Amino acid sequence: MVAFAKDGTNGSLEAIQREIEQEYREALATFQTRPPVLAEISADIQTRGGVVLMGMGASFAACRIGGLALREAGIDTGITPISEVLYGPQIGRGAVKIVVSQSGGSAEAVRYARIAGNACYALTVENGSPLAKLLPALVATGGREFGFTATRSFAVSIAQIVAIAATLGFGTEDFEAALETADGLAVDVSQGLEALAGVETLIFTGRGWQCGLAEMGALAFMELARCPAMALEGGQLRHGPTEALGPKVGVVALRDGGPASPLVDGLAVLCRDAGAPIVILDSSGLPPSNGACTIGLPFSSGIGATMILLRPLQNLILGLATRRVVDIGTPLRCSKVTDSE
Predict the structure, then answer these.
(1) pLDDT in tens, 62-106
(2) DSSP element (H, E) containing 87
(3) CATH number for the 13-171 domain, one of 1.10.10.10, 3.40.50.2000, 2.40.110.10, 3.40.50.10490?
(4) What does pTM read for this prediction?
(5) How far apart are CA 60 and CA 195, in angstroms?
């Protein structure tokens, strides 16, 4: 029998896998759909000269990635958790505010929408959600996500933000090509599973475009494997936290073909010397780092690499989680929609 959480979420590994199978197609369809509200958002951003992206959990990680596309388009872009805005000083007072909530029902998103005022929009996957009723909403294709952890909804949230960035001058050729390439890409992560089999915690790390992807990875691992994990931007990892490296602390590094790609070699040396296993999901085209388990992927950089790296990262997390948890995908202490603060 398939287990369902109190909010109707399908609590099973199969549900998560079904969402993953659809994520690239739905992200591309979402990007290619251009409803009138998209032009409204774009015009408002141009008029006001800036935008603030807000989210919680995986939605915030999607903001971290999509926000870079807006910045590359020349838009002054702030990225912040919604809870930070609710309980701290305001950010970007004259800017457009975009609230990203995959479910459209998270407590912070709904609460902020009620006090937001003008020039505030929603990005969600659920058309009838509270958030979509409170704000002008850009709604992704594919409808509600039923797997516990964010997978398809993460990809389409990125696509929604990239669609906005595209109307403002961001070049999307790499993004679109990556979605089409990644959908048919088979990547064997079994060596990574073996390399990380004995760890008790994981550090996910990336630089630039891959920092938000690392944050999504750490969140998904904690949700599904019920093990501690953290995400650190690559430079931040080098400023002290490497003291935590050891045989029981594994590292998952996301390496693209950007200018920071050679820096992963130094991290691999640190891990090797500390006895910490490191798995590199690598689309850089560079030779494998000594002492690391490298999973090679087609060359890509920027947001294209984010989409190429996404599914292998998800499969690695699912593989590790199934080794630790019997009822993977069934939440014990929370639910798909976090409806309380």
Answers:
(1) 999 999 999 999 999 999 999 999 998 888 889 999 999 998 989
(2) helix 82-87
(3) 3.40.50.10490
(4) 0.94
(5) 29
